[in-house]
Amino acid sequence: MILNRSSLVVLGAMVLLLGGCSFSSDALWPSLSGEAPAGAAQTSGQVPGQVAIQPSAGEIAGQPLSASGQQQLSLNNTNFEVQPPRPGAATGTFVGNKVVQLRDDLRRLQESIRSHNGDLQIVRQRTIGNAQTYHLSVATIRSRLQVGTTPGNPVLVSSWNESQRLLEQVNADIGDMNDLSNRVAADAALSTYLLDATRAAFGLSGAVDEDHRQLEVLEDDVNRTVVLVDRLLTELSDDIRRQSRYVATERNDLNTLALAIKNGEFFGTSLASRTYGMGSAAATATPTVQSRGLSSTTGSRRPLVVIRFDRSNVNYQQALYTAVSRALERRPDASFDLVAVSPSSGSSAQAALDTSKARKNAQDVLRALTDMGLPPSRVALSATTASDTSSNEVRLFVR
Q1: Which helix (H) or strand (E) holds 85?
Q2: Cα separation, 225 vs 115, whole angstroms
Q3: Predicted TM-score of the model (pTM)
Q4: CA dihedral of residues 181, 186, 188, 194 (deg, nearest 10)
């Protein structure tokens, strides 16, 4: 068959596309062992099995970032200034004396609100300062890991401890906000009582027209104070909820950062930030441990990761993080099967030793996944033997 020029061009494009598909498949399903994965492309100046991490825009600009690379969650910034009650002349009646009493109660309430507002502004500024110092400490660690460092660098370990201390200060600020919220809630109850008492005073006998005019003015002043207290309580609740979620996220990222320091290379954000719908109970649940054959465990599924423990000190953490992170990007609700695989050949004594080592290796991999932020409840552990392997392996499947 004779091919013209246009046919050759089309055939050439199809070959390039097929080659691209093969490369993508190999890169997406890495096999981890002592040697580099087959078919994995390497760029000049890059260590095999590692992912180049570029500095984020915030770090380049010198802005403080969280460990997840996000700007600090901002606090509300409203300054709650009360308007003092408008004065009124005493009428000498019983209702007039009641108006004077209610006006004095409103002044005392507003003094309490003014004090709470001052405490709120102080704790907000302190929280922002502690968070900024924390961000700078974490950014220093991340920058050092990005350019490369030694495993377990004591300087970074010390910086990590300092970052954890700073994050606990932010958490202590949340406790101060909770205490302030309780005091503001007491003022909210008092403001509601004053409003009810002011409205009830309209029904008292023995009042002159001036008394009712002053009661109308006082009711407006109390209403403004009630709205102000409600806004103060709402913003406090928003700040507490936002900062609590923020601290929980940063704690997960600090755990992942600790693993990165241990290995001397930067991984990324906690895997917990890639998932959703996980409560505290799920995050602390015990993983399911099962013993079953490979066919019933995985069927014909292709493993996401195969870690071959064919030598001591297999460095698998970076590639494991990358593979699981990509899987969670595609399916944030994904769960995983972690299978300890040992060779089926050899004597019964050797088989027992291999099974024990394979289980220990699987536990180490599970611990690494947990340090990266993946909840243990999302991983099911099992063990099996296989005839197609000559060394202990740990295989990770997506389910």
Answers
A1: none
A2: 14
A3: 0.54
A4: -160
pLDDT in tens, 106-150: 999 999 999 999 999 999 889 888 888 898 888 888 888 877 788
How many other C-beta atoms are found inside a 10 Å radius of the C-beta of residue 328? 22
User: What domains appear along the chain, each with residue ranges and CATH number?
Assistant: 63-269 (no CATH), 278-398 (3.30.1330.60)
Q: Is 86 left (phi over 0), alpha (psi -120 to 50) or beta?
A: beta
- What's at 12, amino acid-wise? G
For 259, 292, 358, 361, the CA distances from 374, given in Å and listed in that order, are 13, 24, 21, 17
DSSP H helices, the chain, are: 5-28, 57-60, 94-147, 154-201, 209-263, 280-283, 294-298, 317-330, 348-371
Q: Please state whether beta strands 305-308 and 31-32 pair in parallel, antiparallel, or not at all (unpaired).
A: parallel
22-61: b (≥16 Cβ within 10 Å) or e: eeeeeeeebbbbeeebeeeeeeeeeeebeeeeeebebbee
The pLDDT tens digits for 45-65 are 433 333 333 333 333 333 344
How many Å apart are CA 36 and CA 25, to the nearest integer? 16
Helix extents (H) in 50-93: 57-60
Residues 6+ apart with CB under 8 A from 99: 88, 201, 211, 214, 215, 218
Integer CA distances (angstroms), 197 to 53, 126, 280, 294, in order: 64, 38, 45, 75
∠ CA 79-173-257, nearest 5°, is: 125
| 3-class SS string, 287-339 | CEEEECCHHHHHCCCCCCEEEECCCCCCCCHHHHHHHHHHHHHHCCCCCEEEE
3 state SS of 386: strand
